[in-house]
Structure formats: C-alpha cells, structure tokens
Design brief:
Helix content: 40-55%
Radius of gyration: 17 Å
Keywords: Exonuclease, Hydrolase, Magnesium, Metal-binding, Nuclease
Number of domains: 1
Distance between the termini: 32 Å
Shape: globular
CATH architecture: 2-Layer Sandwich
CATH topology: Nucleotidyltransferase, domain 5
Low-confidence stretches: none
Largest sheet: 6 strands, mixed
Number of strands: 6
InterPro entries: Ribonucl_H (IPR013520), RNaseH-like_sf (IPR012337), RNaseH_sf (IPR036397), TREX1/2 (IPR040393)
GO molecular function: 3'-5'-DNA exonuclease activity; metal ion binding; nucleic acid binding
CATH superfamily: Ribonuclease H-like superfamily/Ribonuclease H
Number of helices: 10
Organism: Ancrocorticia populi
Family: Belongs to the exonuclease superfamily. TREX family.
Strand order of the largest sheet: 4-3-2-1-5-6
Strand content: 5-15%
CATH class: Alpha Beta
Length: 227
C-alpha cells in the first residue's frame, strides 16, 4: 500500500491568494521515512513587498524576509529538487488543497528561469495526494466547510501550533490523511494512479458545478496545476 512508502508533506505561505501571480515566502517539507521524520523549513526573500494582509496570515513581514530570508532562486531550486527526487520514485507528496501550492511553485520556478516540476518529472506531476479532495470524494454530501481546521475537528485530530504556519499545517495535513485512511481504508489499498484519478474527478465535478453557476472557476480538467 502506498501509505507504507516514504511520504512527503508539503505546504507554502505566500504573498497572496493568486497562485499564478503571488510569490513564495516560506515552505515546509516533512519527510516521513522508515528511519524517522525529517523536517525542512525555508524562509525566502520573495523579491517583492509582502502585503499586510498576507503578513496577518503567516506573520512574516517584508523586513523579516529581506533580513533573514534566503535568495528566492536558491529556495525554489532546493524545494523543487527535493520534491522531484521523491516523486520520481513514485512516492507521494501530500498537500492540503494541493493545487494552490503546486500551481504557485510551478509559476515561481518558471518566473525565475528554473526547471518546473513537470519538466523534472518528464510530464505529469505525480503522485500528489490531497486530503481535501479525498475527503470530498468519500464523504461527498457531508455538510459544512472543509478547511484544514474543519477536517482536523471532523476527524478529531490532535494538532500542535497555529494554522497558517507552514510546518504546523503540514503536520496537521499528515495527521488528517492518517485519520482519513483509517476511516476509509479503501483509499490506502488503491494504487496511486487511482488515487490521483479520484482527486482529478472530484476537482472536475466541483469546478464544473461552479462554472454552471457562472462563477468562472477555471478549467475543470486542469489539476494539480490549475492556472
């Protein structure tokens, strides 16, 4: 089962909510390996001002990023290299609402003249495991919001730290995934190709619904890079 393989949890904090336009500020990667858990955290100088509304979410100011952050190209290269090396072995990268983080990373890599994940992997960005979409796929008609903090409550997961801190969000996401596959063990027994197909279909249904309501939500077939 893929849940027994090495897993990477991945999350970013950024300058805004538009993954095709905004910039990476912090990133956390948590590797769950047979030998233990490795955590890597990056603070980057994004090269642009960090809006106050973004600082209010993740706590990083423009001044902090400029003083303590590493050059954005170095940070992006290290993140992409780590993720690509992991995924090239068909090991999953786990991210909550993964399309945001993956789309942002691809645009940032392209913006700075670096190889994208798709290029490094030779095509499809695979395998990506998104607990947000998996939850929607197996419990489609449950009422209520499905933010990370909502799923933490729904699956009764114990978490440390505040949400919207990259590392805290990664750890919470991994715990939600563990609780999800305990409740729906068929997810763990599916091959990763089927898991990713399930996520794509769930995303397509949701975006198609929004588009039917004139919400202009984008291309329903585009995932995990959505714009």
């Amino acid at each position: 089962m893929w849940t027994e393989h090495p897993i990477i949890g991945f999350d970013t904090e950024t300058t805004g909510v538009r993954p095709d336009q905004d910039r990476l500020v912090t990133c956390s990667v948590v590797e769950v390996l047979p030998s233990g858990v490795n955590r890597t955290y990056w603070l980057a100088d994004p090269g642009v001002e960090i809006p106050e509304r973004a600082t209010a979410v993740h706590g990083i100011t423009t001044e902090q990023a400029r003083e303590n952050g590493r050059p954005i190209t170095e940070v992006l290269e290290e993140i992409a290299a780590k993720l690509a090396a992991h995924m090239s072995q068909s090991y999953p990268v786990v991210a909550f609402n993964a399309s945001y983080d993956v789309t942002l990373l691809e645009h940032e890599l392209e913006r700075h003249g670096l190889q994208t994940l798709a290029s490094r992997l030779g095509g499809e960005i695979f395998p990506v495991v998104d607990p947000y979409l998996l939850d929607k796929s197996v419990d489609r008609y449950r009422k209520g919001k499905r933010r990370l903090e909502d799923l933490v409550g729904h699956y009764r997961v114990d978490v440390d730290g505040d949400f919207h801190n990259a590392e805290a969000d990664v750890l919470a996401t991994l715990k939600v995934l563990a609780a999800l596959v305990r409740k729906f063990p068929e997810l763990a027994s599916e091959p990763l190709e089927a898991v990713q197909a399930r996520e794509k279909a769930t995303h397509k249904d949701f975006i198609s619904f929004l588009n039917s309501k004139n919400r202009n939500a984008g291309d329903p077939d585009a995932w995990p890079v959505t714009c």
